[in-house]
Design brief:
Length: about 400
């Protein structure tokens, strides 16, 4: 068997893994059963017309169907990836083929669209508004814009892991934001008393400069300490977080505060697609509409807060820009805290680069580009942070 699968991998120029053998067999069985279902243009066109999925790249998607139809290996790859997804197995079992061509750039898309009926059926059954279903599915097309920015052509090859959230029905788009159903896992606990919110770090190594230990430029052992919460008759004691989202290396004790968020609680993780400005009123409406939709359509989901993990949470942006902007107004709504960060987000999402580069080589296409570039060239790091909004 492995020889047969290795030959398949060689033809697609992808790395072979022993775990792939059984999934390859499942992929072949699916191909025999489903034929060209995964790349059926009529089926894809039907859902596109009903929900306006591909608002820019529809012609490319249809062209990819024709290109893949001529390559049986890619059809088998599509169904093999379907088998991997159905089994919740690691995507590393079957690496994405790359010929820098329309067929390999789009092939994983058809593995994902294989699950369209299931995705749409669940949202329709729950009574999710048609506009929300349409905007959710538009995520496939929207991400192709980012792919185009990096590679000069449409595709989804590098975003399969992200799109699994859609296939697994863990995310919907409401207005400006993609909203993910998620269990909170960061090692913090959040408390409130008369509108005053305090965040304490709990069970994690922190650096005295304020970020989690191991963050860029905060990884020397001499600066490390362990932050945890203790409770006794005097109150709740721990290391707090300041307004910039840095942990303060001095303990405080809280009295009369009520806990509203801890690890394991349901939260809505807020993701910000790159297809529009962060208009404040539109953003506010998105939060309000999300609360309504979740209560009506996902009543089993008892979420305690909105949460966001992003470079946009960096309160330093207001200092860099020297004024309020849509980004700073977005971040001001959140109570922020440190996470482990190497400062990659600003390169990926502000400058649309596949990885960090020397700051002096960053583009200057906007005033924000220029100001952030200067900030980074001065030796600073724009860390990603976590942020929460109490309901």
């Amino acid at each position: 068997m492995s020889h047969k699968v290795k030959s398949f991998c060689d033809r697609l120029n992808i790395e072979y893994h022993e775990e792939l053998d059984s999934y390859y067999e499942k992929g072949l069985a699916l191909y025999e059963e489903k034929g060209l279902f995964a790349i059926d243009k009529e089926r894809i066109t039907y859902y596109h017309k009903k929900y306006n999925i591909f608002r820019k790249w529809f012609d490319d998607v249809i062209a990819a169907c024709d290109a893949i139809k001529a390559d049986e290996d890619l059809i088998v790859f599509i169904y093999t990836l379907v088998a991997v997804i159905e089994d919740n197995a690691p995507l590393t079992i079957i690496p994405m083929p790359n010929r820098e061509s329309i067929e390999t750039d789009h092939a994983p898309l058809f593995s994902l669209l294989y699950f369209l009926e299931d995705m749409v059926g669940d949202m329709e059954k729950r009574g999710v508004p048609h506009e929300v279903i349409s905007d959710t599915l538009y995520g496939f097309d929207s991400e192709m814009n980012d792919y185009y920015s990096m590679f000069g052509r449409s595709g989804v090859r590098t975003y399969v892991g992200w799109f699994l959230l859609f296939v697994r029905k863990e995310i919907i788009r409401v207005g400006r934001f993609q909203m993910q159903f998620k269990k909170f896992s960061d090692k913090i606990r959040a408390f409130e008393k008369d509108g005053d919110i305090k965040i304490l770090m709990d069970g994690v190594e922190v650096h005295k400069k304020g970020m989690l230990f191991g963050s860029k430029n905060q990884d020397d052992e001499a600066g490390k300490y362990y932050a945890e919460i203790t409770e006794d008759e005097n109150g709740i004691t721990g290391y707090p977080v300041d307004e910039l989202g840095n942990c303060i290396p001095e303990k405080i004790t809280l009295n009369g505060y009520k806990e509203f968020l801890k690890p394991g609680d349901d939260v809505i993780s807020v993701h910000i697609p790159s297809d529009g400005p962060l208009d404040y009123e539109y953003s506010e409406k998105s939060y309000e509409e999300t609360i309504r939709i979740v209560k009506e359509c996902y009543p089993e989901y008892n979420f305690k807060a909105f949460a966001c993990w992003s470079w946009l949470m960096a309160k330093e942006i207001k200092l860099i820009m020297g004024r309020d902007t849509n980004i700073t107004r977005f971040a001001d709504k959140y109570h922020v805290y440190p996470i482990k960060s190497v400062g990659f987000g600003v390169f990926a999402f502000l400058f649309n680069l596949p990885g960090p580069v020397d700051p002096k080589d960053l583009p200057e296409k906007s005033s924000m580009h220029k100001l952030v570039k200067k900030y980074l060239m001065d030796g600073n790091v724009l860390y990603e942070r976590g942020g929460i909004i109490k309901l």
